[in-house]
């Protein structure tokens, strides 16, 4: 059994790697970057459970949330500490997506948002500590992971994060944007190979996703500005209601002030109606914000997938492997994921 050595090797920002598994997490396909980062051979990885690279400091709760999300048919994203075959650690931002034909696709990259990675690491440390304490009292791993989920939720709330989905959505959008800003753009190759126009077509799809993301950013900013305005209006209304009540009370025994206090009295009486409208608007804005967040997540995931597709096409074009059957099978699978996106 491999033990962690404490050594760390960093995933280069221009490296992007993937693997596919069956429904139980057994590895089927992967690219050469995965073998290089994990320091396992292709033969060792194929047919092995994906937790072959699990670092012991990763909390079980993270994987419990992951499996619950995937089995509900939804994609999942998280910062992950992995352990290579030599016991060294490499850190990634991972996305896992259900495949149309069954099983899962995981795409990994270097964590680029240091603040979000640090937040995740701090939360993981708290959760893993609670899990180890549970294990020390005789609890099994499944029970410890379930207890860990409760600690995870509470720790997220303490960090001002209402739900893990909110964290993963923001993290994926940030990671994709930062990574793209630090790399040399979409892969391109020249030549007569049949895959060269495939790569060019993939680039045009990638650019379309860029336009979609820009529109979503505008919509997100608009929703945020409206929400801020609603908050200010609500605060102003509360202040005016308090003032109105004071004036109404002051003028109750002063008939000569009735003409002045009447509008304020009406204003106070209307507060319940106006508040109902404001609460309804706030609820709708909350739904809009969540839908925008989910759409941004999906577009960012698609951008990541199309980038992975383009990088893998370039990898095949640069490869000197004699038999490309497995690579082409993986390419078809990545194409199916893009259609699903």
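Sequence proposed for the structure above (341 residues):
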């Amino acid at each position: 059994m491999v033990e962690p050595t404490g050594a760390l090797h960093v995933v280069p920002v221009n490296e992007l790697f993937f693997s596919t598994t069956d429904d139980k997490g057994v590895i089927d396909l992967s690219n050469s970057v995965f073998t290089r980062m994990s320091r396992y051979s292709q033969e060792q990885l194929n047919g092995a459970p994906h937790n072959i690279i699990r670092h012991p400091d990763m909390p079980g709760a993270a994987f419990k949330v992951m499996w619950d999300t995937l089995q509900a048919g939804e994609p999942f994203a998280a910062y992950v500490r992995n352990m290579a075959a030599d016991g060294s650690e490499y850190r990634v931002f991972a996305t896992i997506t259900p495949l149309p034909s069954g099983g899962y696709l995981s795409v990994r990259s270097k964590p680029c948002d240091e603040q979000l990675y640090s937040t995740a690491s701090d939360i993981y440390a708290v959760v893993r500590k609670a899990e180890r304490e549970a294990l020390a009292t005789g609890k099994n791993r499944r029970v410890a992971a379930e207890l860990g989920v409760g600690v995870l939720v509470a720790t997220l709330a303490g960090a001002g994060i209402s739900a893990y989905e909110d964290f993963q959505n923001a993290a994926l959008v940030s990671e994709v944007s930062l990574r793209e800003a630090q790399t040399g753009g979409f892969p391109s190759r020249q030549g007569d190979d049949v895959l060269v126009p495939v790569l060019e077509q993939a680039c045009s799809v990638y650019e379309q996703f860029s336009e979609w993301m820009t529109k979503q950013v505008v919509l997100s900013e608009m929703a945020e500005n409206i929400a801020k305005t609603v908050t200010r209006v609500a605060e102003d209304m509360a202040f005016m209601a308090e003032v109105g009540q004071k004036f109404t009370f002051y003028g109750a025994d002063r008939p000569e002030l009735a003409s002045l206090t009447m509008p304020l009295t009406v204003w106070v009486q209307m507060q319940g109606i106006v508040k109902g409208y404001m609460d309804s608007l706030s609820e709708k804005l909350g739904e809009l914000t969540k839908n925008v967040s989910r759409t941004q997540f999906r577009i960012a995931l698609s951008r990541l997938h199309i980038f992975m597709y383009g990088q893998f096409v370039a990898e095949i074009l640069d490869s000197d492997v004699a038999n490309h059957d497995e690579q082409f099978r993986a390419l078809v699978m990545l194409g199916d994921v893009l259609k699903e996106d």
